[in-house]
Amino acid sequence: MPKRVAIVGGGYIGARLAKSLDDAAEVTLIEPRSHFVHTPAMIRAVVDPSLLDRALIPYDQLLKSGRLLRARASAIDEGGATLDSGQRVEADYIVVGAGSSYALPFKPEGDDIEGLRRANRRVHDQLRAARTIGIVGAGAVGTELAGEIAHAMPDKKITLISAHDR
């Protein structure tokens, strides 16, 4: 009898693990969102909204044998997971890959993919209307965003603001 595997969270690790175990186990992926959000592409999608749909990958085609439950796990114990609806998912193995979160427009607030689309459009429109752009934070995301804007909108004056001198 195949092992039952419950995976909480359909981010990079959870989605890949679910797909890789799909033929070898009874996989249940517990994920509240309708789409996988390829976060690195979201930086470019703010500058070029035509890329947004390529960065949002529907979960409904991920598994052939396993099942996707659009829900949140509210409790986990040695025998499985209890969903926010009260439904129980029994499992021999439980993997928690709940991921991280940060502000729109790079990740949705909660499960709201349509809200992410609206935020992407709003920020893109603000970028197009601006003559100068200040980006607070010169880490990986801030510098990549500055580079994307400079490439796509060379007429903009961009200032990276950082507490560090390099």
Explained architecture:
- The chain has 166 residues and is of the alpha/beta class.
- The protein has a domain at 4-102: FAD/NAD(P)-binding domain.
- It is built from five helices and eleven strands.
- The chain has helices spanning 12-21, 39-47, 52-55, 113-129, 140-152; strands at residues 4-8, 26-30, 35-37, 56-58, 67-69, 73-77, 80-83, 88-90, 93-96, 132-136, 157-161.
- The strands form four sheets. Strands 5-2-1-9 form a four-stranded parallel β-sheet, covered by helices on one side.
- β1 (4-8), α1 and β2 (26-30) form a beta-alpha-beta unit.
- α2 (39-47) packs across α4 (113-129).
- It is elongated and about 60 Å long.
- The N and C termini lie far apart (57 Å).
- The model has no long low-confidence stretch (mean pLDDT 92).
